[in-house]
């Protein structure tokens, strides 16, 4: 059976819990959305001294959801626009957690013998 890259990108999603002291944030992201193009753009931004923009672009490209709400208790979207107003410490902690999780993007499945 054939498998398309598009189907992997659309279906693959991972959940993480990111700690901020005693508080935790649940996020969902697509490991298959971490493409060479996304990483090259992030690297380019960092090289140009625009590392925050690189982090925002990276997270906007891969995040599919989270349980973060604003002061009005409405969910904050995971768009570039929303990420731009987030504290740097939050963005960096999320990016760090995702990069750590990406070390094993395809957990092994046990097959019966």
If you had to describe this structure to a student in words, what would you say it looks like?
The protein is of the alpha+beta class and 113 residues long. The protein has one domain: rbstp2171, CATH 3.30.2220. 44% of the residues lie in helices and 16% in strands. The chain is built from five helices and three strands. It has helices at 5-11, 36-47, 51-62, 80-84, 88-101, and strands spanning 14-20, 23-29, 63-66. It has a three-stranded antiparallel sheet. Helix 2 (36-47) packs antiparallel against helix 3 and helix 3 packs across helix 5. The protein starts with a helix and ends in a 12-residue tail after the last helix.
Descriptive key words:
globular; 113 residues; rbstp2171; 5 helices
Topology at a glance:
Blueprint: H1 5-11, E1 14-20, E2 23-29, H2 36-47, H3 51-62, E3 63-66, H4 80-84, H5 88-101
Antiparallel strand pairs: 1-2, 2-3
Helix pairs in contact: 2-3, 3-5
């Amino acid at each position: 059976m054939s498998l398309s890259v598009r189907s992997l990108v659309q279906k693959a999603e991972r959940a993480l819990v990111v700690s901020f002291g005693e508080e935790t944030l649940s996020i969902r992201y697509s490991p298959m959305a971490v493409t060479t193009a996304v990483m090259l753009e992030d690297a380019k931004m960092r090289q140009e001294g625009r590392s925050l923009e690189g982090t925002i672009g990276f997270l906007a490209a891969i995040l599919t959801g989270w349980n973060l709400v604003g002061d009005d208790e409405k969910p904050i979207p995971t768009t570039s626009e929303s990420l731009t107003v987030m504290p740097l410490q939050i963005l960096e902690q999320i990016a760090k957690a995702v990069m750590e999780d990406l070390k094993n993007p395809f957990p092994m499945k046990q097959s019966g013998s």
